[in-house]
Each structure stands twice: as C-alpha cells, then as structure tokens.
Amino acid sequence: MRRQPQGAGDMISSMQRRGWLRASLAALALGLPALGCWAQAYPARPVRLILPFPAGGTADAVTRHLAHKMSLALGKPFVVDNVVGAAGTIGLAQGLRAAPDGYTITQISNTNTVAALHMFKRLPFDPRKDMVPVASLFQIPSAVVTNSRGSAFGSFAEMLAYARANPGKLSYAYSHATGAVAGASVKQASGIDIVAVPYKSGPQAVVETLSGEMPLLFTDLGAVLPQIRAGKLKALAVTSAQRSALLPEVPTLREVLPGATEFTGWSGFVVPVGTPRAVVDKLHETLQQILASEDTASFLRGLGGEPMPMSADEFARFIKDQEPLWAKALAAAGIAPE
Fold it and tell me: What range does the domain containing 199 cover?
C-alpha cells in the first residue's frame, strides 16, 4: 500500500515527538523523572514536612513557623508531620525512604545525624550519603535548669556542692545529644556523681522538672525560656561559648566549670538522594529569603536561637565537619553506641 506524503505539520509533530522521547530517555538515563513530570511548576500539590521530634518543643515551633511561611511563598500547603522515636532517627529514616520528588522534606539536627552515627551501633540510613542538604536553619544553646521553688540549690555552684554532699542521689534529664554531652561533660569536669535519665520527649522532661520530680534538666534554651521568664524554672548555666542575649545574667558552663564542653545544637532541612536539583535549589532559595526576613529572625532569636545562613553546599560541608567533633565529644563524655 502506498504511503501518503507527510505534510509540514505532520513532519514537525513527528520531530517534536522524537525530540521529546530522546530528552525523556536521556533524563531517565540520568536518574531524573521524565520531563513531562516537571513541566508544571513545583510544588503542584501539598508537601509533607517530617519533623522527627515531638510536638511542643523548639524544633516543632520553628518547623511550623517555617512551614507556614513556605506555604505562603510557594502557594501550596507544607504540612508538618511529627514522626518521633529513637532520638529522631525514625522520622529521618522515613523521610529518606520517600520518593525523591521534593514532596517529602525532613528536618535534621546534630542529634539524628552526626551524633546518631556514634550513639547507635546501627542506623537504618547513612547521613553521609543518603540525604541531600537543602538549607541550614538555626543553632541554639542548651541550658541547665532546675525548679525555682522546690529545688535544693539556686546556682550552679550550689548544685555542685549538693551533688558532692549527696553522691549518686541527684538525677538530671536530657532528651537530645547536646543535653547528653553537656550533662556528661559536667560529671567529668567536676567529678560529681549524678545520674543521667534520658527522655524520649523533651516537653515531658520539662513537665517533670516543673513538677519537681526531676531536679535537674539539660535541654535547649527555647524549650524552657517561657518557664524561666515566668519564674517557674531557674537557669543555672548555658552551654554556648557566650552568654545568651536573652538571659545575660546566666553564666556559661565554662565560666562556672572550666573544662566543661561548649556545644550548641543546630538544625536544617534535607531531601532524599535523587531529588531534582532544580527542586532543591527552589526550596533553598525560598528558605533563604524566609530566614533573612526580620520576622523569622526575630522569631528564632525569641526562642534563644540564631539563624544559620549557608548555601546548600556549605551546609553539606558543615555537616561533614561536625561529625568528628561530635564523635570526640560523645567519646569524651563516655557515651558509647547502643
């Protein structure tokens, strides 16, 4: 049967189809989605934002603030989902197993990444190769606090004296790596015998310190700042190198105990490996604009934190550089993998 000659329109249409097919095959060969999937602007639907830490804490407050701002900036809901457990590693594992399409973002911290590598014998992921950093968010010191009304001590020096007079009878709570390192560092630098009590939930540790059930707590400053201001908790020291501008009367650990470890916690957002670079860049640029706004900077500082602006590549290098520091700090504090 004789073929009908192609018209110009048919030839162009055929060429376009072949070009689209070649481009799509090339994209697939590179591990990218077919081009048609990304023809529409990202995001085209709601984005899940996994927070591996409990509701009610500093990380929760910051993540919900940023989710609201991102929803406004990008026109689609960013929905916070608290997936807690195992020092934040359960939520991070779930986030890193998600489809690498930009519709699942996970919050990380020093606790569930660089510290987790040396706190657990096995992890369901490798933070060195299974995640793509999107943006660094903020850093925040921890505080050493006690109940203002029923405590046997009102200063760090009095706490040390009480612990020396009552070896093994004073307990302290913590719920993340920064608190664990700070508490262990105090024990080592002072020689006191105090008992560590790990909590799965930071807010629960705060509640039990407020009730007097737990006499001492090492936690991030933002989690206890309202109770300190209300006079319900008393801050004995902060773990940062400098005093907090929000509590200038509270000394640093190094001031009251030379030889103690100085550490601040930090946080960021990551996506699974394989997420298109264009999506990572769009998320990064959006977050940089949000973090640079006076509204968000004031919000973070009101929690005792500081914005931590970096490029995505700088954040990746920062995470890499943090690992040996946390490995050394955990080892020095006598915290072995479990």
Answer: 141-256
Beta bridge partners of 15: none
CATH number at residue 183: 3.40.190.10
Last residue of a domain, one of 256, 273, 300: 256
Burial of 144 (0-12, 13-18, 19+ CB in 10 A): buried
Residue 125: CB partners within 8 Å, gap ≥ 6? 89, 92, 93, 96, 131
- Model confidence, pTM: 0.81
Which residues on neighbouring strands pair with residue 197, listed in sequence order? Answer: 173
* Same domain flag for 239 and 167: yes
Is 29 part of a structural domain of the chain?
no
Same domain? 236 vs 272: no
- Residue 261 DSSP label: P
Distance CA 257, CA 266 (A): 23
Is residue 138 within 8 Å of residue 307, measured between CB atoms? Answer: yes
Domain identity same for 217 and 239: yes
Whether residue 196 is found in the same domain as residue 295: no
Q: d(Cα 236, Cα 216) in Å, to the nearest integer?
A: 10
Residue 271 lies in a domain: yes
Same domain, 114 and 149: no
3-class state of residue 93 by DSSP: helix
DSSP assignment, residue 240? S
Query: Residue 250: what are its φ and ψ, rounded to 5°?
Result: -90, 125
- Lookup result for tokens 């689609």: 76
Q: What is the pLDDT of residues 179-223, one digit of tens each?
A: 888 898 899 899 999 999 989 888 899 999 999 999 999 999 989
Run of H or E residues at 141? strand 131-147
20 falls within a domain: no
Residue whose C-alpha is closest to residue 142's, from 217, 59, 234, 72: 217
- Give me the CATH number covering residue 300: 3.40.190.150
Summarised one tens digit per residue, pLDDT across range 219-264 is 999 899 999 999 999 999 999 989 998 999 999 999 999 988 888 8
Report the DSSP pairing between strands 104-109 and 264-272: antiparallel
DSSP-derived pairing of the beta strands 104-109 and 47-51: parallel
Q: Are 269 and 107 in contact (CB under 8 A)?
A: yes
